[in-house]
Amino acid sequence: MKNELPYFKIGESYGGQQEWLPKYMMRIGGCGAVTACDCSIYFELYKNFSGLYPFDKNNLTREDYVKFTDVMEPYLHPRWSGINTLKIYIDGFTKFLEDRGEKNLKLLPWAGEQDFEATHMVLKYQIDNGWPIPCLVLNHKNPQLEDYVWHWFLLTGYEFIDEKVFVKVVSYGVARWFNFDILWDTGFSQKGGLIIFS
Q1: Would you put residue 161 in left (φ > 0), alpha (ψ -120 to 50) or beta?
Q2: pLDDT tens digits for 167-179?
Q3: Structure pTM?
């Protein structure tokens, strides 16, 4: 069983990239804003939303994307602790959406303490209904995930193989597949979680 969402490219980049951003704090702490920018473009391209992306969605360029992150920055701006809770992300992205007249889209938290089975079902339901899933990982015991520590990224697909669940992770302009149970089991008490759109 497998399902992958459609996605967009900006040049050769799979979605946007933090490293493009000229401001130092956004380059090191703008991952939350980048995922919100990617979601906004996705919503316009694939979910029939309008008014979220202020540039030409049919001609995505790096220059326009960087300008868009400047629009998003006041809502999800970097801070020394990072956007380290689901609430900060939900409050900021919701305000961005409301300021653009979008009041029907709701953002709900799915805490990292939730068990595997329930989270598998939520993951499958969201992807099957065409929603990308912002994911926050704080600390992680697995060194293979060091690039995804204290980081926001998007989940845009799943595959069930021999009772294991793999997820398509979009960040840094690329998509990679990870074992979701390993990703979800951080080994730390302070956890992130998922953002659920409805």
Answers
A1: beta
A2: 999 999 999 999 9
A3: 0.97
